[in-house]
Input
Amino acid sequence: MVGWAIALHGGGGDIPLDLPDEKRIPREIALRHCLDLGVSALKSDKHPLDVTELVVRALENHPYFNAGKGSVLTAQGTVEMEASIMDGKTKSCGAVSGLTTVVNPVSLARLVMEKTPHIYLAFNAAEAFAREHGVETGESSYFITPENIARLKQAKELNRVQLDYTVPTPEIPGDSQIGTVGCVAVDRSGNLAAATSTGGYVNKMAGRIGDSPLIGAGTYANHICAVSATGIGEYIIRATLAKEVAALMEYKGLSLTEAAAYAVEQSGPRGTCGLVAVSANGEVAMPFNTNGMFRACATEDGYTEVAIWPKN
Amino acid sequence: MVGWAIALHGGAGDIPIDLPDERRIPRETALRHCLDLGVSALKSGKHPLDVTELVVRELENHPDFNAGKGSVLTAQGTVEMEASIMDGKTKSCGAVSGLTTVINPVSLARLVMEKTPHIYLAFDAAEAFARAHGAETVDSSHFITPENIARLKQAKEFNRVQLDYTAPTPEIRGDSQIGTVGCVAVDSAGNLASATSTGGYVNKMVGRIGDTPVIGAGTYANHLCAVSATGKGEYIIRATVAREVAALMEYKGLSLTEAAAYAVEQSGPRGTCGVVAVSANGEVAMPFNTTGMFRACATEDGYTEIAIWPKN
Output
């Protein structure tokens, strides 16, 4: 028996150090709130699969993070959400892409995992599946926030694909709507789970799938660790980032901390990605090579952390 | 400088040993033809990315394999094709899902890789992208063969998801339309590439995505090896099979042969999957834990092999 542990993120990217209070404080409060939810659930012996799902649902419901409500917009001004979830012990997993009306993508991913013989459903069929199973849906007006309409306009004016963050310029304050939310958890028995959810890139091509629904890239869990990644999706896919952490531990004998740090470092240039990870031994790691990563973690021995920038 | 090598597959599954000549011979002929194309291309100095693409195009065009023309049908009697391609040196990759009219899905995957800032496009948007770039498209009826209409009817009668193969029963001849085609190649400079393409499962849910377009599951290439997998997509995703081969080589120091065999063995129970793989050193491995796998390979030293069942 080891202690439980939980870590969650609200996205890694170029989060400016002078982020105004009105953007910083709501996110810190949300991170703490979601952490508390997850910790309570673990303390009441909920399975990590349930814990990670409920924490990611809470992050999706928060308009300040790029998932569910508050998702960034495609080039066509729509939302296209995706998510995945994985159980470390069984390696069961579920994934969804191209959602436009489903209020909690992570829960639909879990439904795919539990109610179908498949792992991954996408676009129209995923939406139809949601309706068949009475999953909560909403109008696009529910998901689309004024801030994201403004971000899309800004990206189009800049006439480029805007990644998860905006490089600050004198006129434009640094963005804080950084891609992806996720949660990893382990209980006292060593059961592990990971879940990730996102709206993707600002101004992404409609139909573009990123790392979040791809098992091994944005999400992975086995008997050794659970990982959820965030950052520039294309780099995370090429690096099969989440799986990399597990492979380094299993085949090279690295610790969670070493494996997570190495995987992030190797994934690409600075500014590429971050991840949260927990091990079967109740350890936590939250490395990132970006300016910042909205994150929080807690372990059974009483340690908690809510942070945005690197600790000094 | 090492020798070039190439391996390709037309699917792994329960291919009965008493497969009738009229089903066996056209496939063997096709495998030899595709192998010859790939070998000629390598001999004339073509890059492995070009080699794997042209070989997979050829396999897609063949109605006897489950990719492109001859794809198995969804529960709604439609085709939904997916593919991916990866360059080992740069780790650039491309993937597509949900195609209904694109004649060569693997080429569209390459177009996504080379013409967009993204890796993966799916469904309506992927089809629109194809048209925007003048990729060859045709009415869906082109892809649908009478054999696959019959297979779908049979699967529905059994009222179950029919996997890539049919367990033989006294009345029903064993199936030979086994999921997925793929090709891996390495040139004498050690450049590696991998490509995979499929129609998916007979009677699959519309919108279901399998392992083939998921980088790290059905396709993977880095500086050490290139891998293409075939079999039960859900197992291949959970086991991140293609990436597993590379991780075992890189982090555990296994040879290509050992790594590929171990990855297949660990992926699930017998009947789960097979892979073709080549290493930067010009080696080839083609392990499978199914009854058979349509496959072919050749190396610069003159070795060639075309086979369906295990060698004794």
Chain B touches chain A through 44 residues (CB under 8 Å). Confidence is low (pLDDT under 50) at residues 164-174 of chain B.
